[in-house]
Amino acid sequence: MADRSTEQEVEQALAEDRLAEAARLLRSLTPREVVGLIERTTWRRGAVVFRLLGKDRAMEVFERLGSTMQGELLRGLQDEDVARLFAKLEPDDRVRLLDEVPAAVAKRLLATLDADELATTHLMLGYPSRSVGRQMSLAHVTTRPDSTVAETLERVRERARDAATVYTVFVTDHERGLLGVLTLRSLFESDPAREVGELMQPAESAPVDADAEETARMCEALQEPIPIVDSEQRLIGIFTIDDAHRVLQDAEAEDIARAGAREPLRRPYLSTSILYIARSRVVWLFVLAISALLTVQVLEIFESTLEQLVALALFIPLLTGTAGNTGSQAATTITRALAVAELRPGDIGKVLFRELRVGALLGLLLGSAGFALASLVYGLPMGVVIGTTLLFVCSIAATVGGAMPLIARAIRVDPAVFSTPFITTFCDATGLVIYFTVAKAVLQI
User: Fold this and answer.
1) Where would I find the H helices in 126-240?
2) What angle do CA 399, 401, 406 make, to 5 degrees?
3) Which of 21, 80, 139, 186 is the most exposed place for a label (fewest CB within 10 A)?
4) Are residues 13 and 36 in the same domain?
């Protein structure tokens, strides 16, 4: 494996247009290191790197790139290079790439395919964008129930080079109806003359229009490929463990980004333009800024209360920050539980009661500390106000934070998108209302 200095030498050679030297240095890099090099540069320079690779090595590097980076790299390649790369992709990889490029480019890419590949690609493009049908592999090994173990093993050998996996064999009837599943291990351990219909086990399948992320969770739980079937239970493709890991990684990256009030970049940071990074953040900043106006309105309503006791203003950041953090913690916990199918929208009653108790316990602990500190500095009445407010805001924030992801899922909205701005706005505004209401009652102002 080449060290970091070799990659820096390649970058320097490319910057100075010493292409022959760059090509020589690239030969000492692994495909993974070449991918890292392309991901850290612009699409124009990435295309130059790509052209300096041999054909076989170039294909290996291209397959390792994400679909977004593949689409951008194609912009800098000649038409014959594009056609060759596109034709060699697996149908599911091809469909993901088509989703990333403009419609005009997608049309031109499809025109380079032969009739069979075009039909296969159109088939997968016909499924909903987030369905497992867009993510499945069409290359799998099947056998008939009346085939012998020896015949099935021979079929595995014939398909080994092209199939997405050979460790699982699917048993179908003459109309491709899914009957069962076999493992390669069970075939090796059985009598070669035995019929596979006696060995097969029931198969856990998923419909072709099922949500890809839900199917990935199912695949991860079973730790085996999932057969994908149509409405008549005919086998269409398979969803492998590798497919599941990729889908879950993408979903996790998207959730983390949106929980941080931004859109996912979908490409490596250093190869992303400044304009795109700013665009991925500015929408949420506007949403949060507009929602902050509600907080301003609450402060304006209680302006006279603040004028009577300026010390109240000192605790506003503490209370709103604690409320927001408590709500976000609850939302993150419930979003994760929804993602791994530990909860359903119908569990909202249980979640509300549970988070109310969790929030009350947190509020009691934080409120006790707030009561002690505020009492020492500002007197006992102020301590009662801070302690009581923390108890209330933590209870309410945890309850609302726990409910939001479930409500979002019920109305078919991404919980990570829905929860963050709502919780921020609600906790800030509600926390201030509670704070000033308690203060007026206790301090008689």
Assistant:
1) 149-159, 184-189, 212-222
2) 95
3) 80
4) yes
**Strand-strand pairing, 226-229 and 142-143:** unpaired
Contact 173, 143 (CB under 8 A): no
Specify whether 223 is located in the same domain as 298.
Answer: no
Structure tokens belonging to residue 335: 């979003």
Alpha-helical regions (H) of 315-379: 316-339, 348-378
Q: What angle do CA 373, 379, 382 make, to 5 degrees?
A: 80
Q: Is 151:143 a contact under the CB 8 Å cutoff?
A: yes
Q: pLDDT class for 64, splitting at 50, 70, 90?
A: confident
**280, two tokens:** 């991925």
Could you tell me the strand order of the sheet in which 178-183 lies?
Answer: 142-143, 168-172, 178-183
Phi, psi values for residue 109, rounded to 5°: -65, -45
The position carrying tokens 């969803």 is 239
Mean pLDDT score, 79-94: 76
266 and 283 Cβ atoms separated by less than 8 Å: no
Residue 242 contacts residue 264 (beta carbons within 8 Å): no
Task: Tally the C-alpha atoms within 13 A of residue 411's C-alpha that lie toward its C-beta.
Answer: 10
The one-letter amino acid code at 135 reads Q
Residue 16 contacts residue 9 (beta carbons within 8 Å): no
25, 169: one domain: no
* Residue 113 contacts residue 85 (beta carbons within 8 Å): no
Give the tens place of pLDDT for each residue, 187-240.
999 999 999 999 999 989 999 999 898 899 889 888 889 999 998 899 999 999
Is the backbone of residue 176 left (phi > 0), alpha (psi -120 to 50) or beta?
Answer: left
Strand 142-143 relative to strand 168-172, pairing: parallel
Query: Taking the model in full, what pTM does it have?
Result: 0.59
Q: What's the domain range around 82?
A: 4-134
Write out pLDDT tens, residues 87-97.
778 888 888 77
SS3 category, 180: strand
